[in-house]
Design a protein that fits this description.
Structural class: alpha/beta
CATH superfamily: P-loop containing nucleotide triphosphate hydrolases
Oligomer: single chain
CATH topology: Rossmann fold
Number of strands: 5
Largest sheet: 5 strands, parallel
Helix content: 40-55%
Length: 278
């Protein structure tokens, strides 16, 4: 409620606000919280008031004024630019953006010059982590394999259709364990609208093990100064038992076609070994 009150007040302030041109679109459980923190600390970037704004997916009906209220004012940006001599930017980090079938078009209509960053984690590990994320929040009550096997019935057409009912929308966002690990289908949707040079795919394991190299790629991509050195961060990480061998093998088989297509689409670096899994 405090956030809603703050947003309501900001909507009616007589000032212009920055418009995000950087969108960290996902994927869920792949290090977006860690990347958000690095971006928020950068001298040329001003963060929104929350990490996940969710405008282009679940809050689309709230309107652009509500969305803009999440971002700094242009006066703040100009003051920072005067102090630094650099143009300041702002950004939106919402992991559901990559998966939601309507978001890519909405984002590009809002910000035609947008740059997009996708963090990709080992698909089996991401699926397993997603399941335990939902269990921890009390949304999931089925055992792991039952939940994975129930997915096609719960979310019958995940890459094309969200659904109009509240039940369908919740299922699409929260019970789409395997579908959200099919990166190739999601990336292709964005790549059909954006030139390749405006999409950066990062391997989340690299961000965790060698953040300096990953952040150097981000700074070059965004055409900003280098990130200041900071302690290695792994924020919002879940701690779960490894999947049983039979479950891991089932997930590997289920996701294998997408893994190959993702490598073909995003590059050979997007391969994963067993020691990178959950």
């Amino acid at each position: 409620m405090a956030l809603e009150a703050r947003l309501a007040a900001r909507q009616f302030q007589q000032c212009e606000r920055m418009r995000p041109t950087i969108f960290v679109i996902g994927v869920q459980k792949a290090g977006t919280t860690t990347l958000f923190d690095h971006l928020a600390r950068h001298e040329q970037i001003l963060p929104p008031i929350v990490k996940e704004v969710h405008y282009f997916d679940v809050a689309w009906n709230r309107g652009e004024r509500w969305y803009n209220a999440h971002f700094p004012t242009t006066a703040e940006a100009m003051a920072g630019e005067d102090a630094l001599g650099h143009k300041l930017l702002t950004f939106d980090t919402t992991p559901y953006y990559m998966f939601h079938p309507d978001v890519s078009r909405r984002v590009l209509d809002f910000s035609p010059g947008a740059k997009v960053i996708a963090l990709l984690r080992d698909p089996v590990a991401r699926t397993w982590s997603h399941y335990w994320h939902e269990r921890a929040r009390g949304r999931e009550h089925l055992p792991p394999m039952e939940a994975f096997l129930a997915e096609p019935e719960r979310v019958p057409d995940p890459h094309n259709h969200v659904g109009s009912s509240r039940r369908e929308r919740i299922a699409h966002q929260h019970y789409s364990y395997c579908a959200r690990s099919e990166y190739d289908i999601q990336l292709r949707r964005w790549m059909e609208l954006l030139p390749k040079q405006r999409i950066l795919c990062l391997k989340s394991e690299d961000l965790f093990t060698d953040p300096g190299a990953s952040l150097a790629r981000v700074s070059r991509f965004l055409e900003i100064s280098a990130f200041a050195e900071s302690p290695s961060l792994t924020l919002n990480a879940g701690r779960y038992v490894h999947p049983p061998q039979d479950v891991r093998e089932w997930l590997q088989s289920r996701l294998a076609p997408s893994q190959q297509a993702t490598r073909d689409l995003a590059g050979s670096e997007f391969s994963w070994t067993d020691d990178e899994q959950a």
